[in-house]
Amino acid sequence: MEKQWYAVRTKPRKEHYAKEQFERQGYETYLPRTLSLTSHARKKCWVSRPFFPGYLFLNLMPHERNWVAIAGTYGAIGAVNFGPYYPQIPSEVIAGLKGHEDENGVILCESNPGAPFCPEQRVRVVDGPMSDLEGVFRCMSGKERVLVLMDLLNRFVEVQIPLNMVAAC
Known about the structure:
mainly beta, 3 helices
């Protein structure tokens, strides 16, 4: 028999801790991550967050499916189950998630899959009143507009700009 993926619930904001504990026990884990823009004290920055808050995935052989030990792992609540049934996550789902990761293992999300820029990519306004200003691409805002984080007057401001007025730096 071969390994199967299972979803495991974790305690709030303990996904990374649970992942470390499972890896210490010899389990193969997968914790998909994404970037999130946070602001604190007038500063905005990108931080890595779990793509599925409160969950991670374990790749288990049949003899490793000790649900009591998994539930007893620090940081974990237990495997996702419906009574005695523990649903398997298809390998294609995990492969699809991994296929959307960048070189740092972060899943880049955008509101439009056909976005011409990647999140955090530096862009420059090429036309209009803000011509030649640079910013950081956040996401698509509809089909023809982009949301760009710009440093204006020593503050980071999100600006919606028509797509045809923005180019990669």
